[in-house]
Design goal:
Layout lengths: L19 H13 L4 E4 L2 E5 L10 H7 L11 H15 L3 E6 L6 H15 L6 H21 E2 L7 E2 L2 E8 L5 E9 L17 H9 L2 H6 L10 H4 L11 H14 L4 H17 L4 E4 L2 E4 L3 H10 L3 H9 E6 L2 E6 L2 H31 L3 H7 L4 E7 L11 H32 L12 H8 L5 H10 L6 H12 L5 E3 L14 E6 L2 E6 L3 H6 L4 H8 L4 H6 L7 H4 L6 H17 L2 E8 L12 H10 L2 H9 L4 E4 H8 L15 H12 L5 E3 L3 E4 L2 H63 L23 H20 L7 H14 L26 H15 L4 E10 L5 E9 L2 E6 L5 E7 L3 E6 L6 E6 L5 E5 L8 H16 L5 E3 L2 E6 L2 E10 L6 E5 L2 E7 L4 H10 L1
Parallel strand pairs: 2-16, 3-12, 3-16, 24-27, 29-31
Antiparallel strand pairs: 1-2, 4-5, 6-7, 6-12, 8-9, 10-11, 13-14, 14-15, 17-19, 18-19, 20-21, 20-26, 21-22, 22-23, 24-25, 25-26, 28-29, 30-31
Bound molecules: adenosine-5'-diphosphate and magnesium ion (MG).
């Protein structure tokens, strides 16, 4: 709501009492509270803060973007947004008229509006639109350089009027634009009041250009050297940096596609004017002479004209009369006049040419305009000079103030008309409000025949002896009865009016006394034709382009052009017509004080502005019976929460019915009228109490919304999660099913295959089955093993186990290890192996009882060697608990050598010999040769038995070393055992070899040993 910022009242319409005191109080309160914007309905009143206020950043832009005016605290953004929204949504052209006196903040306001529009458009980030926006923004820099100046009221005062159209496409993005300039105050080029400056451009050049550039232009960076810029004696201004502004201007030139040559020419012209100001004439008989002819060279060089022709144009003029052409020399006054007129005209033309160039950069291109024809809409922004009253007011002030009269007239008409039309449209009775209609002043200036401009023109037409003084007389005669015109002649009592020199107009904004001196000249605005021809003859094409009329025939050019006054009047009428065709928005700027102070609120001065801007009337007109009006739908949306009938939705009728029900229930019916589409509320109090009730409801609603929304978010997230899980589950199932189907196909007849599917390739399992497939494979392996094993009789299973172990340890290492043989294990218990088996079994039973082992796993006669390298015949016994040595003859106990746990490894050779070493952790390994019956190989069996039992007891595999020689420990000493072939041996035998042990095998007659021999070769 507009009162949001809490400082005073955000909309004057809502003031309880509408009079000057309350109005001023509220305005001052808001100004001192830092709120510079206040509404009158949809009109924005802006008070210049004279300090940087932090209300234009992106955050603020977002706050106002796309919102209704009343939703946020008053801000110029809301006006800009509204203009943009109406244009975009309804396809209507809109305009924003910014008015107020000089220094009140109009130009700043127009820039803020432009920036806002740039910030809220081009969501698509199109390059061309970015370019257009950039050019529109940058064009300001150039126009201000050449069209603004420091005055006593404003350091950056616009000395021209500006109206800018921005074209938008159907999406509301800016696609082009056009700038119109009005009446540049060119007299400033040659004359400045004390404390004022010429246009910024001159100072930017002198302070900003490099020394080498300046010397090319024959300039020094000394303002005092140049008459045209030193009169005001105010060259340096605290708030202005000409140096950096010069850089900004140069960069803006580039952005706007000015060529290097054009930029160069612009500064040459500015320099030429500076030099022109220093041209002085001396009387010389009937004619004049130049004081310092050197300056001619400089100027002619800068403008690319000949020295001679320049001299001639300055010192004489060519006249065409009765078909003859002749030269007439100037006197000193004429020469001075000609020089100044020349300087003004050149600058004025330069400025207009720059505006044209800028337009070329932003105008819709031909092909674009045909593309956009019918489709582009426009926002116009008018930033035009404010009402001015100086100590001495001349023709320029007259024009400027007339312009303000026209705009005020437009404001009155539109605001009033709109208001009236609205009541009519809505079918609500309207009562008239008193306000000052300034049409009469507009007429005073512009009426044909009777108006001041007409009288001026008539005087100018009279070639010859009409003087400014006679002009006052003429006006006195024709306007004597006009209430808003006076002079000393008509009002002798008004002593401050000078006789025959001053006339006074009672403008809507106050009385202004104009000094007539110079009016005729300025209105005639004559520039000797010679200058136009001179510049047209320039060899610089850009200069030539600026002065096309120089090409005209001398006889043609004597035709009288339109006067400055009439041109201005026509342009104003066209402007007003243009604005009237658009939907207007107003920004009314107010200057709080004359001192550029951010804290001072000069009541008298502000009141004066409030009065002449007609702001209080504006409020009254706006209030005419009704303080507030709003569309039913919007109204209902805003206040529906305060009635149970309308919250959360009104269901028994349309919006209007809903609003009625709401207002009846709340007891406001007497204070409102119902229009066709809007509700009208008479007193602000009703609106305030509506607002209050709404504010009370809002926190609860916010919490409710938050609660609902949070819940909704969570539910949505939960649903998503559930959905994701379902998808995952189904997908997994699908993957698994497909996998199993594939597997099924592959393993269809697995049991009838010879290898039970060992060679079948398993397809790659999906992620979800990685682990499962490992188990499956294991199951398959077990099944396969079972299929193989089940064909073997159960009593053979133990030996199969040993054989598997032996295989693990020896396959590919030892050539033969008796796999095909039946492994009996306890050979010494067999009759055919051991003739003394009875005695043997007896001994075993004894040891069994004593040592508590369960079973003999292996037994054999052996030959062994010991640490003294003595070999002896023994028997070897492996039980489930350890290894025993028995005496070979008696087969009774010698001793248990090792427990299973103490075994650390087994070594044997790759051949078929029966040597085997059982390594232990006790420092005394068992190095033996088995002595089996029939030369059977039993090393494999013994390895299988030991490895199997070791694994059962220790849970890990025993290290098996297969080599022709290996290390072992005998009596705690390391010895190497080697196998060799020798004639010496009849059968395998141990032999001492120094510290080491040799195991000799016979060279021949020993088939069983062949493999060992082969392995040795
Ligand atoms: N909204 C604003 N924020 C800050 N300073 C401002 C604002 N409006 C105006 N000013 C100050 O006032 C000076 C005059 O404003 P300007 O727009 O040039 O006045 P006008 O165009 O009405 O003559 C500016 O140079 C600036 O210093
Ligand atoms: Mg301005």
């Amino acid at each position: 709501m507009v009162g949001h910022d809490g400082v005073g009242i955000g909309d004057f319409v809502l003031l309880e009492v509408i009079d000057k005191d309350h109005f001023m109080q509220n305005l001052e309160k808001r100004f001192s509270g830092g709120c510079i914007y206040t509404y009158i309905g949809e009109v924005c009143v802006s008070v210049n803060p004279y300090r940087t206020v932090n209300i234009y950043d992106q955050e603020q832009v977002n706050k106002y973007k796309g919102r209704e005016i009343f939703e946020n605290p008053p801000h110029i953004f809301a006006i800009a947004d509204s203009a943009h929204k109406v244009m975009k949504q309804q396809g209507r052209d809109t305009c924003i008229v910014i008015s107020g006196e000089s220094g009140s903040g109009k130009t700043e306001a127009s820039k803020i509006i432009m920036k806002y529009i740039a910030a809220v458009t081009n969501a698509g980030g199109q390059q061309e639109i970015e370019r257009v926006k950039n050019v529109l923004l940058q064009s300001n820099a150039i126009l201000e350089t050449f069209g603004n100046a420091k005055t006593n009221r404003n350091d950056n005062s616009s000395r021209f009027g500006k109206y800018m159209d921005i074209n938008f496409d159907f999406k509301g993005d800016p696609v082009g634009g056009n700038i119109s300039n009005y009446l540049l105050e060119k007299s400033r080029v040659i004359y400045q009041q004390p404390g004022e400056r010429n246009f910024h451009s001159f100072y930017q050049l002198l302070f900003g250009a490099s020394d080498s550039d300046l010397s090319k232009l024959r300039l020094k960076n000394k303002v005092d050297n140049y008459f045209y810029v030193n009169q005001g004696n105010a060259a340096s201004v605290r708030s202005i940096s000409d140096r950096s502004d010069y850089k900004a201007t140069q960069s803006a030139f580039r952005t706007l596609a000015f060529s290097d040559h054009e930029i160069d020419t612009i500064w040459r012209i500015v320099a030429a004017i500076l030099h022109l100001g220093n041209v002085k004439f001396r009387p010389d008989n009937e004619s004049v002479k130049l004081d310092d002819p050197g300056v001619l060279d400089t100027i002619s060089g800068l403008l690319s004209v000949t020295n001679q022709e320049l001299r001639r144009a300055l010192c004489e003029r060519v006249i065409a009369a009765k078909g003859e052409v002749m030269a007439k020399t100037h006197n000193e006054a004429q020469a001075n006049y000609g020089r100044d007129a020349f300087a003004k005209a050149v600058y004025d033309r330069l400025f207009s040419w720059i505006v044209q160039k800028v337009n070329r950069a932003i105008n819709l291109k031909d092909e674009e305009s045909s593309r956009y024809r019918q489709k582009t809409t426009v926002i116009g922004v008018l930033d035009i000079y404010g009402f001015e009253i100086f100590d001495v007011n001349s023709f320029e002030q007259f024009c400027i103030n007339y312009c303000n009269e026209k705009l005020q007239q437009l404001f009155i008409e539109l605001v009033l008309k709109q208001e009236q039309e609205e009541y009519q449209r809505e079918g609500i009775q309207w009562q008239n409000i008193d306000y000052f209609n300034n049409q009469i002043i507009c007429d005073l200036v512009e009426q044909s025949h009777k108006g001041i401009i007409a009288i001026l023109d008539e005087a100018c037409l009279n070639v010859g002896k009409v003087t400014d003084e006679m002009l006052v007389e003429a006006m006195d005669q024709k306007l004597a009865s006009h209430n808003h015109y006076s002079s000393r002649q008509l009002k002798p009592m008004e002593k401050d009016l000078k006789h025959k020199e001053d006339f006074r107009i009672s403008h809507y904004a106050g009385k202004v006394t104009y000094n007539i001196n110079g009016f005729l000249d300025k209105n005639r605005d004559a520039l000797f034709q010679d200058f136009k021809r001179l510049l047209y003859s320039s060899s610089n094409p850009t200069v030539k382009e600026m002065w096309p009329e120089g090409a005209m025939d001398i006889f043609q050019t004597t035709k009288r052009p339109l006067t400055a006054g009439t041109l201005f009047k026509n342009s104003m009428i066209a402007l007003v017509k243009n604005l009237a065709s658009k939907e207007p928005y107003y920004v009314r700027c107010i200057k709080p004080n004359e001192n550029k102070s951010p804290v001072q609120f000069d009541k008298e001065q502000v009141l004066h502005q409030v009065n002449y801007l007609g702001l209080i009337e504006n409020v009254r007109v706006r209030r005419a019976g009704f303080a507030y009006r709003q569309r039913y739908d919007l109204f209902l949306r805003r206040y529906k929460m305060i009635s149970q009938y309308t919250w959360p939705n009104f269901r028994s009728g349309n919006d209007k019915d809903g609003v009625k029900v709401l207002m009846d229930e709340q007891g406001y019916s007497d204070d409102v009228k119902y229009g066709k589409t809007k509700i009208f509320i008479r007193s602000p109090r009703t609106l305030f109490s509506l607002e209050q009730k709404r504010s009370r409801m809002i926190p609860g609603i916010v919490i409710l919304l938050q609660k609902q929304w949070r819940g909704a978010i969570c539910r949505r997230r939960y649903k998503k999660m559930k959905a994701a899980l379902t998808i995952m589950r189904v997908y997994r199932l699908y993957k698994m099913r497909s996998y199993f189907q594939a597997l099924q196909a592959i393993f269809l007849n697995v049991s009838s295959r010879r290898d039970f599917g060992k060679s079948l390739r398993w397809p790659n399992p999906p992620l979800v089955l990685r682990k499962g497939v490992k188990n499956l494979k294991a199951i398959h392996e077990r099944w396969r093993a079972w299929m193989i094993i089940k064909r073997i009789p159960q009593e053979d299973w133990p030996q199969v186990r040993y054989k598997v172990k032996a295989c693990d340890a020896l396959s590919n290492k030892r050539s033969y290890y008796g796999l095909s043989r039946r492994w009996e294990g306890n050979y010494l218990a067999l009759n055919n192996e051991n003739s003394d088996s009875v005695q043997y079994n007896h001994t075993i039973n004894n040891i069994k009882n004593k040592d508590k082992f369960k079973k003999v796993l292996f037994s054999s006669f052996i030959k062994k060697t010991n640490r003294f390298n003595k070999s002896a015949d023994r028997a070897l016994l492996v039980t489930d608990t350890g290894v025993y040595k028995l005496d070979a003859k008696k087969l009774n106990l010698m001793k248990r050598v090792l427990s299973i746990q103490e075994i650390t490894g087994v070594s044997c050779s790759p051949g078929t010999d029966q040597l085997i070493a059982i390594h232990s952790s006790l420092g005394n390994d068992l190095v033996v040769a088995l002595e089996p019956r029939d030369n059977q190989d039993r090393v494999g069996e013994l390895v299988g038995v030991i490895c199997h039992r070791y694994f059962e007891v220790c849970g890990r595999d025993l290290n098996v070393n297969v080599n022709m020689h290996f290390q072992c420990k005998l009596g705690n000493k390391s010895r190497s055992v080697k196998i060799e072939l020798s004639n010496e041996a009849q059968s395998g035998m141990f032999k001492k070899d120094g510290q080491n042990v040799l195991y000799l095998l016979p060279l021949q007659n020993s088939n069983n040993l062949i493999n060992t021999k082969q392995a040795m070769q």
